[in-house]
Amino acid sequence: xxxxxxxxxxxxxxxxxxxxxxxxxxxxxxxxxxxxxxxxxxxxxxxxxxxxxxxxxxxxxxxxxxxxxxxxxxxxxxxxxxxxxxxxxxxxxxxxxxxxxxxxxxxxxxxxxxxxxxxxxxxxxxxxxxxxxxxxxxxxxxxxxxxxxxxxxxxxxxxxxxxxxxxxxxxxxxxxxxxxxxxxx
Length: 185
Description:
mainly alpha, single chain, 4 strands, two-stranded antiparallel sheet, 6 helices
């Protein structure tokens, strides 16, 4: 069965997000509001087919980030689409990173990590994983750039900003290094 031929139930409280309404189009029930797409962990009883279909539709709609719990999935567009603007930084800085309706992005992920660090007063660990060309370096740079921009106003911010600036140079070296899989890695 196709994803739209059955109802997708969500673990979230329906009073907070609603379950969406379904309309009959061409004899098939299709959701007017797709639920659970920002965070695949919210889908109850997921299967591989429905998850892949959601990711495919998000990709075709130029939505390249998706959460699955606390993990951020990135599907690189391999095009010149601008996803990292100052307006995006401002948008994610002004909104609650833990809002389930907030569009997934490396900036919302960075804001979650930064907020957790400040709230729990503990170090945070982030792992960027993927094959050659999957966007690890650019996302790491954008992640650190976001942290650098929101860390202003703290006494430690000068030290943190200096450390991050030096880290960018190290990342450039690793991002430009040749690997066994690719001479362009």
